[in-house]
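Renewal narrative, Specific Aim 1. Our central claim is that a sequence can be written position by position from structural information alone. The example that follows is taken directly from our test logs and has not been curated for this report. It begins with the structure tokens describing the chain, in the order in which they were read.
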């Protein structure tokens, strides 16, 4: 296994992302968020966007999983080889990309994309998938690590309120590559459970780095309580 991926075994990676139009959608702000989660003990950072990645790379030595969300199609996480090469160019250690079987905007297959990233950058590839079958196919396509990132985010994958830990367990048991649990992990207990279910590492984003959503959890609970009281 790639030594950098090996170093993440049993550890927490924190995803530091803000969304278009939000007040925190600012590379300098995300750099500071990444520095803050490093103080809390994050073993790695996952981040989005070329400038965010450059600033975080310059500020922190932690393993950095990079992606570039772009376009308005179904495939939006590092959708093309050009996006993947640009992510690698920021100094990110791992290139995360859409690992589903859906057509990519540049018409390359996942296997072609992974091979080109390996040949041209030497960086490992994290394939973000939504189903068991996609995880198996992504490992066969050469992905170095598979993430459950897109479970519940494709029209054909399971949608539940919480993380798909059954998917994490099945992929972790069957794949020859490490599996990262990612997506809707909202509590320390769920993060620990994902590791117990076999995940190599766990990525948490929203519950740590997205104050608008965290605040909404609280405001809704308070409103609910006020209604029932
Ligand atoms: C589906 C999609 O676009 N996921 C993105 C992938 O990078 C991010 O928006 C998520 O925040 C990240 O996966 C972490 O997940 P959560 O925020 O649920 O802990």
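The sequence written for that structure reads:
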């Amino acid at each position: 296994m790639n030594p950098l991926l090996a170093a993440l075994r049993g550890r927490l990676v924190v995803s530091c992302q803000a969304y278009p139009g939000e007040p925190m959608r600012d590379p300098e702000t995300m750099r500071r968020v990444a520095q803050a989660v490093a103080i809390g003990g994050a073993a790695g950072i996952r981040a989005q966007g070329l400038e965010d990645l450059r600033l975080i790379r310059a500020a922190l030595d932690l393993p950095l999983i990079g992606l570039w969300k772009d376009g308005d199609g179904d495939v939006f996480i590092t959708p093309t080889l050009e996006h993947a090469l640009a992510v690698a160019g920021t100094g990110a250690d791992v290139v995360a990309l859409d690992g589903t079987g859906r057509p990519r905007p540049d018409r390359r297959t996942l296997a072609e994309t992974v091979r080109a990233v390996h040949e041209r950058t030497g960086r490992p590839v994290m394939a973000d998938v939504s189903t068991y079958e996609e995880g198996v196919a992504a490992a066969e396509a050469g992905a170095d690590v598979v993430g459950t990132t897109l479970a519940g985010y494709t029209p054909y994958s399971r949608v539940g309120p919480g993380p798909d830990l059954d998917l994490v367990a099945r992929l972790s048991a069957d794949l020859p590559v490490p599996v990262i649990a990612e997506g809707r992990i909202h509590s320390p207990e769920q993060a620990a459970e994902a590791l117990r279910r076999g995940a190599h590492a766990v990525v948490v984003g929203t519950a740590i780095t997205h104050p608008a959503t965290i605040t909404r959890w609280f405001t809704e609970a308070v409103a609910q309580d006020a209604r029932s009281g």
